[in-house]
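This part of the workshop introduces the protein records we will be handling. A record pairs a protein's sequence with a compact description of its fold. Backbone structure tokens are a discrete shorthand for how the chain folds in space. The question running through the whole workshop is how a given chain folds. The record below serves as our worked example for the rest of this section.
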Amino acid sequence: MKELLRNITKMDNYRLYIMHGIILLLFFILVIKLFSLQIAKGEYFSREVNGTALREVEVEAARGTIYDRYGRALAVNNTAYAVSLDPSIGVDNLNKVLFDLINLLEKNNEKIAETLPITSSLPHKFLFDGSISQEKRWKKNMNLDENLTAEECFEDLKKRFDIDQTIDNAMAGKILGLRCALYEKRYSKYIPVPIAYNISEKTLTTLREQGSSFPCAFIDNQSNREYPYGKYFSHILGYIGSITDEELNKNSNRDYSLNDVIGKDGIEKAYETDLRGTNGSQYVEVDSSGRRITIVENEGVNPISGNNVYLTVDADLQKAAYDALEDALTDAQISRLSGGDYSYSVSDVFKSMIESDNIRIKNILNSKEGTTQGTIKNYILSQDKSAINNIDSAREILIKGFENNAISGSQLLIAMYEQGSITDNDNVITKLKTGILSSSSALIMKMKSQEITPQMTAMDPCTGSVVVNDVHSGDVLAAVSYPSYDNNELVNNFNNEYYLRLQNDPTTPMVNRPYQEPRAPGSTFKMITAATALEEGIVTPNSTIYDKGTFKDAGKPYARCWIGSGSGSHSAVNISEALEVSCNYYFYTAAYNMGSESITKLNNYMRAFGLDTPTGVEIYELYNSMTDYPAHISSPEYKEYVTKQRYENPSSSDLKWTAGDTIRTAIGQSYNNYTSALLSKYIATLANGGTRYKNHFMSKIVDADGAVISEYKDVIEEQITLKQSTLDAIFKGMYLVTSGPKGTLRNSFADYPIKVAAKSGTAQESNKRSEHTIFVAFAPYEVPQISVSVLIPYGNNSSTAPAPTVAKAVISEYMQLDTTIENRSYNTLVK
């Protein structure tokens, strides 16, 4: 019995132990749950009770820097103060607040972020650059009918946001841009809307003092992309901008969103993957309406900066080439104002500046009374009151008024001064106003000072390109396109008005001429004919051909030598002398004597020197989009293709390749059309003895810590076998061009300290305009280091030699003539 009671007691003790264990376990679970609710997730449930939540926001990574070959920064990120709007803050009379804020910023010369994708001036136009999908997406986001025109959208939005009808369209457009941007953030009010970037200290102080007047505005630090060299490198570097639907779809395998920026052109586009970093994140506390309350500290992921890209170009050489080209164009234009072939008058220049909108009609129509622009405006409206809403009509009235002497050249120059296009630093405008200077003299003085540039006059010649290559590699040392544009206007705060002006500029400043503008090479092509004739045994270095002036063997129309327009003669010349005096007859004969396979033989060498393929650079080239062409050189295939494109039903005789086509091809005419970049590459290949390198801009890619990620290795596209006697004869001829007793460029290079091997050429495209002028060279003659090509459309002028002048400036900069600046070697790169 006692034993039974003892066993029962033990069982009761076990039950107690088990019960105590269960109680302890439950208590432990309760403690953990309380810890989770009150400590670990207490902030979360507190937000839930208060109707708040956390939202993850991307933190943009710093984009990589782009450098030249010596480590000079070409594209950088700078942190600056910016004014933004907080969509989460409700404001009574928002339009009035925005109106006052815009006026304050503009009074301090700040640029407003004009984000409305519609022009403010009449007639209203969309600014989607032809992208239908972007237009539809924007209309959908704004709850607008997708069939509405730009005019209808503008008016619809003015009504929706209750914009005062007395406000002018320019201000209304700025307010609408901000209202639309705020509207698009209606479901994500924690994302700010930028209104002005890189504001001054004066604006910063004013906004802080008057902060209570602008409760929805705040000041923050922003990272801006900047291009220190601006116009000098815009065609090479390109720019970045907001990603489009098409770009987002194309990069669907990468981590992009509609809030990202992406490389739009140039190196920024070509090396997007390397330059773009990895975005980080931070957490923002928002209320139930999506309004931002605060940023949560110590949460999120830090961004990773992009890699840095080093280029082969030399910033100093690029700048020197650009300035020299602009100087040469200026001199050529002023020369034509003095008379001679293809001359023009001061009146022609003024009319051209009106037509090209460098005397801005929009500014005149928005001008105030008491100004010269106001006087011009009153004249325009006196002829047609409706012209106030029609810029094109107003422009036509102004041109007619100028032609009829109702508006003077002096008034036009003063209007340009009032518009800020020119200054009075030289007192020219003051003297003009007082009658001391005539409008003609004032115009020429402003052209000489380049306040009025060749681009602004839009008169021949006003465009051109320069390319410089290292002959012993594929390095591009400089690639200049004139006119250019300021890519700083297209990043951060995209300047829609500036972009629209670029699109309408008759000088097409956004065209990258070294790679996208082919022209007939003229006599600069003759070295290829010379190489073909020598290598094929048609001529020898010492054999001569007598120049008869007119070449008749290839049939009519007869081909003529340039001397005496076919009636003169260079007498008997060998191949070097033929290059020296640029004897067309010699090269007609050499090509004709190649026989029935003459064009095939020429085409083989044209291809060998790279004229039928792109140069290879990483940025866009014209040939990249000409994949349907059977060839890009003067050839039977090319002739047939372009003839069928030009004529609906060409005859067999129209398509047939003739002996006349061949001999004209031999002097760089016929169907020859090449970019200045291709010409420089061909000369580089010749100068180094026949090694054709693929051209490139990238030198190396380096990460943020300085470690080299990748380095470019030269690619040899082809090794041309050329006899030393062939090279010697051609080099001698090119040197005689600049130094021989009959050299066509002997005056241009007289007393020049560097020996230069060169060839110039001209090609006529229109009998109403002067010939294109082309120049190619390598230097120094004894030990070639660089090749240079200069192409100036409609630039041939009897009183000036613009192309050789530019080339000399480029060679001088490369050889560091008359300078004592930093010691540099073009065979090394910054490590």
